[in-house]
From TrEMBL, chain A:
Family indicated by similarity: Belongs to the PhnJ family.
Lineage: Bacteria, Pseudomonadati, Pseudomonadota, Alphaproteobacteria, Rhodobacterales
Function: Catalyzes the breakage of the C-P bond in alpha-D-ribose 1-methylphosphonate 5-phosphate (PRPn) forming alpha-D-ribose.
Any single GO BP term: organic phosphonate catabolic process
Name by which UniProt lists this protein: Alpha-D-ribose 1-methylphosphonate 5-phosphate C-P lyase
Species in which this protein is naturally found: Paracoccus denitrificans (strain Pd 1222)
InterPro entries given in the database record: PhnJ
Keywords: 4Fe-4S, Iron, Iron-sulfur, Lyase, Metal-binding, Plasmid, S-adenosyl-L-methionine
Catalytic activity: alpha-D-ribose 1-methylphosphonate 5-phosphate + AH2 + S-adenosyl-L-methionine = alpha-D-ribose 1,2-cyclic phosphate 5-phosphate + methane + 5'-deoxyadenosine + L-methionine + A + H(+)
Record EC number: 4.7.1.1
Matching Pfam families: PhnJ (PF06007)
UniProtKB/TrEMBL annotation, chain B:
A biological-process GO annotation: organic phosphonate metabolic process
Source taxonomy: Bacteria, Pseudomonadati, Pseudomonadota, Alphaproteobacteria, Rhodobacterales
Protein name per Swiss-Prot or TrEMBL: Phosphonate metabolism
Pfam families listed in its UniProt record: PhnH
UniProt KW keywords: Plasmid
Ranges in a coiled coil: none
InterPro entries membership: PhnH-like_sp, Phosphonate_metab_PhnH
From TrEMBL, chain C:
Descriptive protein name: Phosphonate metabolism
Organism: Paracoccus denitrificans (strain Pd 1222)
Keywords assigned by UniProt, alphabetized: Plasmid
UniProt-listed InterPro entries: PhnI
Organism lineage string: Bacteria, Pseudomonadati, Pseudomonadota, Alphaproteobacteria, Rhodobacterales
GO biological process: organic phosphonate metabolic process
């Protein structure tokens, strides 16, 4: 049931037009952060206000929306955002990646490859990849303008010198179409390869920082690295204990206070689909029939 | 007078949502053609150009009308349905007209080096819009796309300015395609 | 068998129901009315209106009730409501010189046209708990003086007549709107003042205090602090003149600051300005000190690296709704990022230990 007190998808039409214009410019300049007049949403900054505004500007009544946080549909903030759109847009929701037309995500790219016709909306806390090297927006804007990304390479190289490898495990910076260095939001670097050549439209919304950026379909997205230290997507060296998957990103779950652990897919839909297909892991119930 | 008051979206939030999805897909997949509906602007403006105006422009977006588009009927329609202020080409955030009428396109804003998004979007009315002709490559295009562009030199010059440049929405009847600055355009 | 944590929806519903119970407290104690909050918690209401950027005492009181007295949460409720309101137009600038003052003090002149009016202030109360307030009762009526009919001109205007303070010519440039345009730096003074007017009171206070202790010192005197009501007028194009649509209570502070002069300007006083909705003089004074500190560049002063001089630092961090949202978001799940870090730290430790053992 849609809440009649608010416009479709909550935002007024003028606000949606402003966000829509920013989205088109973001697609035209891949990886560049377009400033937009982010609104104060009825949920806290830092909790997905940018993603929510982008989703609201994209939704049509016929969409099927999926919302995930840490890969899971059932985490409380994902539940809360999904409810917000059920209430204000009346759209159908789904947990199935393949059935969704719009997916709003925090910190993961689904394991199931996306397709044309799908839109992946990322919630972004700090859109500026150079922010932790240079806190001033006035400076980082200039660095992007001049393509002055040396500082980033120096930082990554210092990591190698100190730790033997690049010590960035998530929000790993990428270069889009050979021009802008972009923050892919705090996804694990395991997910970085999925940014490139993706048939879906990828949109990034940062509400508090009032920036939108985008990666068009099939774009060239390269994780920053060095010839002698090439980028490597990494994950826990285990299989999922529920579905046996060896190739998906895993959450570590502590099951008692004596150090016993298990590993399960962070993408709950992926894991459930595999189990439904009969795949089993180390801790699946014995004798369970596929 | 009646022509001014009619022809807008009857159900703005739903119709503009559908129209925007087409525009979003178009800008994301340069050269791909989409069909839109919902606007009936006065002649000689196409349905697709009318849809783009209703979806993207309002009182905050300076608009330039070029050639045939700069007619009293359309000025009145825009004033009533969008409120977009009409301005000279150099100040425009959006521009509407035939390709010839928009010339020279170099007068449109291409953004600033630190804010390349502050650039014009041209809504180009074409007599023909078919997936054939000029070869398009770049972001949003898996291998290549073909599109019947009025010329290629101007788009190549625009691409050379990247990340600056204008972006185009190409309209013909109820169909539209987009050509962002990021697309590389070559002769067929 | 392990079952992944489920039940997010049920947990949220239960949490909301529990919150509603806690909000009400012991049901044997009479419930607060919104009118009681509006009338008896007026300074809290004022703060919520100021930082919420919405002048509506009833809504602010409702927000305080809903937020269980958490004023930042109440500001958040007001801000979220405010964004959805249609905009009919902008009022004419209010004329604070024509303010009906309840309080007006100057620290720079012992007496001046319009006089000093102490007004309803805590200033000279002895901060002794008044146990009589624990019981209910109506206070003795305060003595009344007839309202003065003389005008109350601004102190800065008096200094201006003698050319002793910087000129501040009227400017009709429309003020930018921070809630409708993304913040762009460097910001105009109008935009800075707008950001400070809705800035967190505590943050503004601490910054102002830091300037007094030497981090961007500005040698401020309170030229004048005034609290009172001003008329709000809107221009009606159909009528061709302005119509009064109501009154708002404002607190205004003008500081007079020492200035040695520069290449182009002779020695004179400079200004810091604060204007806040409602009665909120701590905020108004703080705002005027921070405003003045931020003007170093325009006045040809040195940037000493003080936080209060740093426009980007101040404007990026003064909003408590942005700050609290981002601060509190770190309690959301970060399993995925943490797992990535965990894996990295384990691998780097393993390698470090191996190297250490190889060396031994």
């Amino acid at each position: 049931m849609t809440d009649q007190a608010y416009n479709f998808a909550y935002l007024d039409e003028q606000t949606k037009r402003m966000i829509r214009r920013a989205l088109l410019k973001a697609l035209a300049i891949p990886g560049y952060q377009v400033p937009f007049a982010s609104r104060e949403m009825p949920m806290p900054y830092g909790w997905g206000t940018g993603g929510v505004q982008v989703t609201a500007a994209c939704l049509t009544p016929e969409d099927r929306l999926k919302v995930i946080d840490q890969g899971a549909d059932d985490t409380t903030n994902a539940v809360s955002i999904r409810r917000f759109f059920q209430r204000t847009a009346g759209v159908e929701t789904t947990e199935r990646t393949t059935d969704a037309t719009v997916i709003q995500t925090r910190h993961r790219i689904p394991e199931q490859p996306l397709a044309e016709g799908q839109i992946l909306v990322y919630q972004v806390p700090i859109p500026e990849p150079l922010r932790f090297l240079e806190p001033r927006e006035t400076e980082t804007r200039k660095m992007h303008e001049l393509e002055e990304y040396g500082l980033m390479h120096v930082k990554l190289y210092e990591d190698i010198a100190r730790h033997g490898e690049i010590a960035t495990a998530y929000a790993y910076p990428v270069r889009v179409e050979g021009r802008y260095v972009m923050d892919p939001s705090p996804i694990p670097k395991f997910d970085n390869p999925k940014l490139a050549g993706n048939p879906a439209i990828q949109l990034f919304g940062a509400g508090r920082e009032a920036r939108i950026h985008a990666v068009p379909p099939y774009s060239d997205v390269v994780s920053l690295d060095f010839e002698d230290h090439p980028f490597a997507a990494s994950k826990a060296d285990h299989e999922c204990d529920l579905c046996g998957s060896a190739g998906s990103y895993l959450d570590e779950v502590i099951t008692d206070d004596r150090g016993t652990r298990m590993f399960v897919c962070s993408d709950t839909d992926f894991c459930a689909s595999r189990q439904a297909q009969g795949h089993r892991g180390r801790l699946s119930p014995q004798g369970a029939t596929p | 007078m009646n022509a001014i008051l009619t022809g807008g979206f009857a159900d703005p939030s739903t119709q503009s949502a559908h129209a925007f999805r087409a525009l979003l897909e178009a800008m994301a997949r340069p050269g791909r053609i989409f069909t839109v509906a919902g606007a009936q602007p006065p002649a000689p403006i196409s349905v697709a150009a009318g849809v783009a105006l209703l979806t993207l422009t309002d009182s905050t977006t300076p608009l330039h009308l070029a050639g045939d588009a700069d007619c009293e009927a359309l000025r009145g329609w825009i004033g009533f349905h969008t409120g977009a202020p009409l301005v000279p080409a150099e100040q425009a955030q959006f521009a509407l007209g035939g390709w010839e009428a928009l010339q020279p396109v170099t007068r449109f804003r291409t953004g600033e080096p630190s804010y390349p998004d502050r650039s014009a979007t041209l809504i180009v009315e074409l007599d023909r819009l078919e997936p054939e002709g000029a070869r398009l490559t770049g972001p949003g295009i898996q291998t290549e796309a073909r599109l019947s562009l009025p010329e290629t030199a101007a788009f190549r010059a625009n691409r050379a300015l990247f990340p600056l440049g204008f972006d185009c929405i190409l309209t013909c009847g109820a169909r539209l395609a987009a050509l962002p600055r990021s697309t590389t355009v070559e002769d067929a | 068998m392990y079952v992944a944590v489920k039940g997010g929806e049920r947990a949220i519903d239960a949490a909301h129901a529990w919150l509603a119970e806690e909000r009400r407290g012991d049901p044997s104690v009479p419930e607060l009315t919104v009118a009681q909050i509006r009338e008896q918690m007026a300074l809290a209401v004022n703060r919520v209106m100021a930082e919420g950027s919405l002048y509506d005492p009833d809504l602010a009181a409702l927000a305080i009730k809903q937020a269980r007295g958490d004023l930042i949460e109440a500001v958040f409720l007001i801000r979220a409501y405010r964004t959805t309101l249609p905009r009919f137009g902008a009022s004419r600038p209010v004329d604070t010189a024509a303010m009906a003052v309840d309080r007006r003090v100057s620290a720079t002149f012992k007496d001046l046209p319009g006089g000093q009016v102490l007004g309803p202030t805590f200033d000279y109360t002895h901060r002794l708990l008044d146990f009589a307030l624990a019981a209910e009762g109506t206070p003795q009526p305060a003595p009344m003086a007839p309202a003065p009919d003389e005008p109350v001109p601004h102190v800065t205007g008096l200094l201006d007549r003698d050319g002793l303070i910087e000129q501040q010519p009227a400017d009709d440039t429309p003020a930018p709107d921070l809630t409708r345009q993304p913040l762009e730096l460097p910001a105009s003074r109008a935009l800075r003042l707008q950001a400070l007017a809705r800035a967190d009171e505590g943050f503004t206070l601490s910054l102002a205090y830091s300037t007094q202790r030497g981090y961007g010192r500005t040698h401020a005197f309170v030229g004048e602090l005034r609290i009172g009501r001003v008329a709000v007028e809107v221009e009606l194009p159909e009528l061709g003149f302005a119509v009064e649509i109501g009154e708002v209570e404002l607190t205004e502070c003008d500081t007079v600051n020492q200035f040695k002069g520069s290449k182009s300007e002779p020695p004179q006083f400079t200004r810091g300005y604060g204007l806040v909705m409602g009665q909120s003089e701590r905020k108004a004074i703080s705002m005027s000190l921070v405003d003045r500190a931020l003007r170093w560049q325009e006045l040809g002063e040195d940037f000493t690296g003080a936080p209060a001089q740093d426009e980007e630092f101040v404007l990026s961090h003064c909003d408590n709704i942005q700050a609290t949202g981002f601060l509190e978001h770190i309690k959301l799940p970060h399993y995925v990022d943490f797992q990535a870090e965990l894996e990295l730290v384990r691998r780097m430790r393993r390698e470090a230990v191996q190297m250490q053992e190889a060396a031994e």
